[in-house]
Write a structure and sequence with these properties.
This protein is about 30% helix and about 15% strand. The chain is an alpha+beta fold. The protein has one domain: Beta-lactamase (3-Layer(aba) Sandwich), CATH 3.40.710. Strands 1, 2, 3, 4, 13, 14, 15 and 16 form an 8-stranded antiparallel beta sheet that branches. Helix 5 crosses helix 14 and helix 10 crosses helix 11.
């Protein structure tokens, strides 16, 4: 989802309530600094003072605003794990954000999907430079789209040129305007998403540019099913969730609720002055599917990214392919993207690897050092939050190594 990038105001934020392209896209400015609710004491454990996470906690509190009332985080380093939360988890009840909340992770799902595809590559069941039309004949066709000219690598790196379904005006109206309240429980199929995308012309010729398109990962989910004979959700569960013991992570298909503990999720669905901040906690995750429908918590996300970067999920060759990046284009100078994974450069020059994700009322980010020794995952229960400041504080704060 990531539709709406480049827009301003609340309509743009509502657009980004889909799945964001990356950490750098998820990192949006907190317009109000530190309002009164940000002064709410954070709930933490793990002896935060000993671990030197004071700067991170300060950045978390400062990042909160009227659209992102609460934040939850886990940082993991050589001292162990540190969990904390700040702000409000339920505006109606005025209860605090939980340090162990489940939340919708949005486009972080893409790293899981890409990992499964690369495992299939490692098993010799397909090649990164195979054409998508070879495996899904007739699926990517229409208005200039041609699956016989698009490789799997281009699908995973967003260099395919395939139109982003979340940029379709009818989809945007149902998903990102107040009409969403009437459609939040609608079921969407991958075939429906792809067919809508095929009504539009490609953004560019395959391999000649970069544009974030959720359609790419809907197609990747279909590819996994074609190769394995099982739904992508089942493959993620069997290949990643179960082996790593990610007990708080799930790949729901249509179930609309979050497991407990969880906070409420909020977003505005209109540009109108005084637009209501809606509770959008419940929704049918098929609206995102393989592009962003997963649920997790910060501890599981840290476990996943550290295991991935330490080589527990992919052989060295495929992990190197995942970390081979392309530039995002002139409108994002210096930013790069791999295969469902991207580098994020902190203000102190440290490069960490991860992904970000937005879906209605939920903005998440997860990143780890390349050796997997230091990781952080966080979530705001709103469509935006100053994630960059939190990540910089964690990886660059006093005493960080």
């Amino acid at each position: 989802m990531a539709a709406g990038r480049g827009r301003t105001g609340r309509a743009g934020r509502a657009g980004r309530a889909g799945v964001t392209a990356a950490l750098a896209v998820t990192v949006t400015a907190g317009a109000l600094g530190a309002p009164a609710l940000a002064a709410t004491p954070g709930a933490g454990d793990g002896h935060q003072g000993h671990h030197g996470h004071h700067a991170t906690l300060r950045a978390m509190r400062a990042a909160l605003n009227e659209d992102a009332p609460g934040v939850t985080v886990q940082a993991k380093d050589r001292h162990g794990a540190w969990n904390a939360a700040a702000g409000i988890g339920d505006l109606a009840r005025q209860t605090p954000r939980g340090a162990h909340d489940h939340y919708r992770v949005g486009s972080i799902t893409k790293t899981f999907v890409s990992t499964v595809v690369l495992q299939l590559v490692a098993e010799g069941r397909l090649g990164l430079d195979d054409r998508i039309g070879q495996w899904l004949p007739g699926v990517v066709e229409g208005n200039g789209h041609d699956g016989d000219r698009i490789t799997i690598r281009q699908i995973l790196s967003h260099t395919s040129g395939i139109f982003d379904v979340m940029s379709d005006e009818d989809v945007r109206r149902k998903v990102f305007s107040e009409e969403f309240l009437d459609h939040r429980y609608d079921a969407w199929t991958p075939e429906q998403h792809i067919a809508i995308a095929m009504r539009h012309k490609p953004d560019f010729e395959p391999g000649t540019g970069w544009h974030y398109s959720n359609t790419n990962y809907v197609i990747a989910g279909k590819l996994i099913e074609r190769i394995t004979g099982k739904p992508y959700a089942q493959e993620i569960e069997q290949r990643i969730i179960e082996p790593l013991g990610l007990h708080e992570t799930s790949v729901p298909t249509t179930g609309p609720t979050l497991p407990k503990p969880a906070s409420r999720a909020y977003t505005r669905l209109s540009d109108a002055p005084g637009a209501k901040n809606h509770d959008v906690t419940e929704l049918n995750p098929s609206i995102a599917g393989a592009a962003g429908g997963m649920i997790s918590d910060s501890a599981d996300l840290n476990r996943f990214y550290t295991a991935l970067l330490r080589g527990r999920l992919l052989p060295p060759k495929q992990l190197a392919e995942m970390k081979t990046t392309v530039p995002k284009g002139d409108d994002r100078p210096g930013q790069r993207y791999g295969l469902g994974l991207e580098p994020f450069k902190t203000t102190c020059g440290r490069v960490v690897w991860g992904h970000g994700g937005d879906i209605h009322g939920s903005a998440s980010g997860a990143a780890s050092t390349a050796d997997g020794r230091h990781a952080v995952a966080l979530n705001f229960n709103g469509p935006e939050g100053e994630m960059k400041a939190v990540l910089d504080a964690e990886f660059c704060g006093k005493g960080k190594r």
